[in-house]
Amino acid sequence: MTTTTERRVRVGDGDVVCTIAGTGEPLLLVHGLGASRHTWDRVLGELAATHTVIAPDLPGHGDSDAPAGDYSLGALAASLRDVLVALGHSSATVAGHSLGGGVALQFAYQFPERTDRLVLISSGGLGPQLTPALRVVTLPGAPALVAGVAMLPERVTRWFLSAVASIAPGMLAPPDAAPVAESMRRLTDRRQRRTFLRTARTVINWRGQTVSATQHLRQLGDMPILLVWGTDDRTIPPHHHRTVADLLTNPHLIAIDGAGHYPQETAPDQLLPGLQHFLTSTSAPGQFIYA
């Protein structure tokens, strides 16, 4: 059984709460919008067999304190840099899911000397298209709507989302009903609801995603990059990852058949082998792997 510890790391005026497990090269896991470090629970133990896994709650999410007011990708990336420094790590492989993928990319652009590899899972920031369910949270009246939905019993929310996945197939993949319902449950907390809305509005408007990282990809040089997506992702279109792969010199790709937007939660057995192979078979620029 994997032994985990919970750490509170002081970042600026607040604390970032992290789950830490394992030994070896650092692996920083960055969750998505409205989620928490627990999105990684089903893969953390296996990854900790070979790496020091650090899974933080982003500022304002989960158990971490809210930021002073800057919810931008740059501020989130800087907070992760501060977490690594406080924990005594000079660099790490950074893996991000959804919004966390955008944060991971921003981290690599701002702190290339601290980024060994990138893993982008169902990543944001690779194209404008986005499910209408997230675009609507940027419209007037969204705070009241989000609060109302969040207050529903989780079983009702899960039933409703399962129905949406069945009758409106463009909105949500069936496997994603449970993870989305769990995210909505967390939004009963006013602080987390405020973070969700403010963070969303830094990267989304009613038309879709407003922040794109694709024009800067060549700055990453020969950094090893793994792109992972579910073939049935209806939150962020799978073609974003295929298009970005064409812009990279030597991309590593994993397409998980039938998975939606949360493969780390709904398809961990399909995700882990390819992810572990990438981590053990690649080396960061300037590093070497010894047999």
From TrEMBL:
GO terms for molecular function: monoacylglycerol lipase activity. Residues 26-268 form the AB hydrolase-1 domain. It comes from the Bacteria. InterPro entries: AB_hydrolase_1, AB_hydrolase_fold, AB_hydrolase_sf. Pfam families: Abhydrolase_1 (PF00561). The keyword Hydrolase applies. Signal peptide: none annotated. Keywords: Hydrolase. One of its GO terms (cellular component) is membrane. This is Alpha/beta hydrolase. It comes from Paractinoplanes tereljensis.
